[in-house]
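lol ok so funny story. i was supposed to be doing the assay writeup but got distracted and ended up predicting the structure for this chain instead. priorities right. anyway since i did it might as well share w the group, maybe its usefull for someone
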Amino acid sequence: MDATTNALNWFEISVTDIARAKKFYEEIFSIEMQEQEMMGMKMAYFPADMMGGKVGGGLVESPYHKPSADGVKVYLNANPDMETVLAKIEAAGGQVMMPKTKITDEIGYMAGFVDTEGNHIALHSNK
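and the output, tada:
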């Protein structure tokens, strides 16, 4: 893999209620997510600028997508400081499971939460 290739190019967070999940993520990140239905799936996409233009992803409701606390761990970008996102999680219906925790000076910070669908999601920020 060369330096211009990302290990991750797309992610999907499984949901059982697309409207509820979309509202939750829009509230905690102060974003607008576009919705689409395709191939029997309801989807809501994270804005490309939130992902730095290198990775895309969204929420997906379908018979094949089942939320789980044991699924793949996705770290969403909470820069510049994840405190802004963490402060909104419980009011939006989620639960903070791991508070802002320093990894190293060079890497920054991480935190974890459970969304309205039961998924365990992680956050990363530089500050």
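The chain is about 15% helix and 35% strand. The radius of gyration is 14 Å.
back to the writeup now i swear
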